[in-house]
Design a protein that fits this description.
single chain, mainly alpha
């Protein structure tokens, strides 16, 4: 399967997944959603160049930037489209995951 198809499958699956189960919030939601970010921003949010690293980014900054992309207030090539696929809860889960990752 090509890399592009894998990324599309991950993004589609992550967006379609219910963020809340009958037993409460999924503790792995941020990690699972972050898999779709790895193609551009690197594994665990540690970019190898060309794209900003997300690892160690403060939660509030990550959420603010994602909301700015979604609202069209921040220029982007693709992030304004990608960000529209995430709920506020999913953005918070991503922010929590990336803020906990070590910057390398």
């Amino acid at each position: 399967m090509s890399r592009a198809l894998i990324v599309v499958a991950l993004v589609t699956g992550a967006a379609a997944a219910s963020p809340v189960s009958a037993q409460g919030a999924d503790p792995n939601l941020g990690r699972n959603l972050a898999a779709a970010c790895a193609n551009c921003h690197g594994t665990h949010g540690v970019s190898q160049g060309g794209f900003p690293s997300l690892a160690g980014q403060p939660r509030s900054q990550f959420v603010r930037l994602m909301q700015e992309f979604r609202a069209g207030k921040r220029p982007a090539t693709i992030m304004h489209q990608i960000s529209k696929g995430y709920t506020d809860e999913q953005m918070e889960a991503l922010a929590a995951y990336f803020s906990a990752q070590k910057v390398k």
